[in-house]
Give the backbone structure.
Amino acid sequence: MPHASFAEKQRFLLKLGRMLHRFGTPAYRLEGHLQEVAQILGIQASFAVSPTLLTFVTQEPGETHEHVHVARVLPGELDLGSLSRTDEVVEAVARGGLGLDAAMARLEAIEAMPNPYGRALSLAAFAGAGAAFALLMRCSWANVGWAALLSTLVYAFVCWAEASSRITRMLEPLVALVSALVATALAAAVDPGLQVPMVVLSSIIVFIPGLALTLGFAELAARQVMSGTGRVMDGAMLLFKLYFGAFLGIALGHRLFGKVADPGPAQLPAWSSWLAVAALCAALVVVFRARPRHAPWGILSGFIGYGASLLGAALLGPALGAFVGAFLVGLYGNVFSRVSGVPASIVTLQGMIVLVPGSKTYMGLNALISGERMVATGQLGQDSFLIFMSLVAGFIFSLVLLPPRKSL
């Protein structure tokens, strides 16, 4: 960038860092990526990133004065389409085909883009994600339908939160509370076979912070102690808020409408799990706002993760099955990144979502507090912790065996 001033390069770095953080980039990847961009721009820089704080220290070559920029931010939300478009802008700058003024204009246009899928598809995605998770958890077809219905109600509150800061602050416990109240009412008045706890969990599955907890442990493994600790604690508090809302809603519902016995899991064919994975990954394409051209590869990642974890669990047990799934998903993403030139996270996130034990953590919390098990399994808390560690180890091993060409 011989014709760009130091101030222009600095502004570009600050804008890029803010945007990538907003689009959900983990700290260890964001710091490494910004360091690479700073070298391309020909300036000296160092960065410290956490879920709520960005610190940039830049220095013009040959000067001793350092410029420090500190920004208070909110934890980012995954937006794979915007992440991909932003990466294309950086690539164009690195090749010299795009000046910093034009690059800044493109970044601002990306930042201002509305949801490319619109309300209708987003509503369908929420309903599909809830139904798919219920199916994956072996709920009956009727309960799958109830989960889809309650998920549409949850999406209505998401839309309301976009227009109201007060609703935004209480969104997670509120949607869990309303979902639980409606589910208990339906079980008492319409369908005694409705599995209330599982249908409620399915309806709020989009909010369950399994991915955030996994990324937090990955940051801790990368020795990003402050960022990793912050992300894990943020995920834990989100989980507590969701569980409290659901616990309160079910308790109020039982008081208002009466308690209905849980009918237990349904006997569904084995192929229903694969259908659930396909539906869940397709819904996540819309929820994560992935670009249509990347959608098939992201869905394939979900199938790779699920199939590999089943095979690994049959041979080595559930925890090491998650390791096998994460390892193969990581390899797949790195190969895809090398071939296509896009960040590996664009296609690996669906595979990660299929593998992360966020729902098991929720179930373990329920068993700890209420003493009731939502599914007939062993030590849910211990299993969840082992799976988290296996996922982190699987992705680390895949990075060592086949490093990606991109830092994102």
